[in-house]
User: What shape does this take?
Amino acid sequence: MKNNMKSRHLLLLFISFFFVLPLYAEYFKHIGLSEGLAQPSVMAIYQDRLGRMWFGTREGISQYDGNRIRVFKGWIASVGEEPSVWLGNEVSFIVGDSLDNLYFLIDKNLIKYDIQTEKFVRLTNEGIITALTSSEGQVWYMKHDSLFCLKANEETTFVLKTNITSRICCLTMMDGQIGIGTYNGVYLIDRRTYRQKQLLEGVEIYRIFESSQKELWIGTRMHGLYRMNDKQQLSKIPYLPGTSEGISSEQIRDFVEDNEGNIWFGTFDGLHRYNIGSKQYSLIQIPQYVGGLNHPSIFALYKDVAGTIWVGSYYGGINYFSPQHDTFVHYDYGKNINSYYSYIGEIVLDKNEHLWLSTDGGGITCVDKKWNTLQQFTAGGKNSIPHNNVKSICYDEKKDCLYIGTYLGGLSRYDLNTGRFYNYWKEETHSSDRPDEIVFHVKMWKDQVYISAHNGFFRLDTQTQKFHKINIPFAFYEHFDIDAEGNLYMVGWKNVLCTHVEHPESIVYVPLAEGDSKATPTRVLATANGVYIGTLGMGLFFYDRQTRNMAHYTSRNNQLPGDFCYNLCRTQDGKILITGDKGVTCFVPSEGTFTTIDLM
Assistant: This one.
């Protein structure tokens, strides 16, 4: 009976992870999954000369003509004998040239859309372009530390080698200057002499925007907002939440200027506005059941030819509105879970058979077998989780406590017996030998907690409560799993790594290449025989650890309904559950059979 209960909870985990509760829009219009959007995380927006809106998501492109949405993602079939084009997944920028051909930066590669032939063309394959913009009908991009220019229907021209050693993340072309944002400040380059000067050294930049008043607005990833006037005087906007004298979030993502000259900027905590007349700042609040946007984490802003502002959020799709009106959407996220956020992440079952649900922005909630809310914890107060954006959660049955990984609040521990929280990032001295404030994934293995964070991979001894950093080379890895023998599988940007938690010096990289493209891995599921790897756009892989052979399951070989896999889970009887953009699929490895539940 208990195993059946656990299996049922596993299925509920899968289904709830990607369900969105109903949104009831009255004023602030919304485009989301139910309208056909490719994926709810909108990272870039553009309008072509035909008036169509283009939305770049983390799973390809959506085109909206005012009536319907067309989706372009994964492999795009071509006409005739021309080969199919692999678009990639995450769209960072969309710009246009003087002929209004569109250019997309997808997975650090440049993709062109010819507006006359309506065909996509892949211009690069190396995956090394980090910034893209357009100015006066010309397309500009950064490849490594070099600047290139692409005019309509002409060959690419090399412009400048900047010798910037830090990672470049954004590019802005101005009348007399080139603005380059990096992980180590802003570089301003004179377009005539190519002389450089560096500003905000040590600060990670996210976006640079020049207003019609020739003011430069600089958004940073974690360190707030800066303004530079036309006399090159730089000032930092004070962080003063709840006031009109400063900003209410220090993560600034994008900018747009409305027809009145006001500056709107998207942040982690919502949509902000700077009123050019009153010189005051305001935050578009998100009350729980009325008013506000569908999701507060704003990544993309765009003003169309009619003056309408389009807002792309991390999980809420698209909202659009006229700045002349102060009315926003009315929505209801339901009464069972008391939060603004309808995306449920990981779920764990405690020894009392209570479910603990993590949410992306709404903290954690405990429910019983009948889904009655027993407890809910949100950030704030002396005894609470450090941040409401919960990325991962695991349960220590022996000590009856939860380990909670949050974005911007680090790792937290909740003791179910005492009802007390311990927040490591806030309580302990910050150092490189323990997780920082950004935790991606946590997992129990042999009474130890393993943590993947922005600054590395760690083990927490649950007896001594001491951290040990496990040296894994190269970039951080967001998701991982460990099998019964201690084999560790990790996924990061285009990489799948295999090692052992106790002997990490021996590393094997699992290749997922197909042609000249590489799959983007999303999740790994470790089993006794090997690891299942879910990807965006290339289906499911299984890597046999002993033979090092790779099996590949896709929609093209009629084994999966779709090639976009979001999550993987193993049931008590050994079946593999796969959630994707076309529903939930159950794979029985012993029989080699697939059964799909269509949730669309």
User: Anything to note?
Assistant: Residues 5-27, 287-291, 326-342 have pLDDT under 50 and may be disordered.
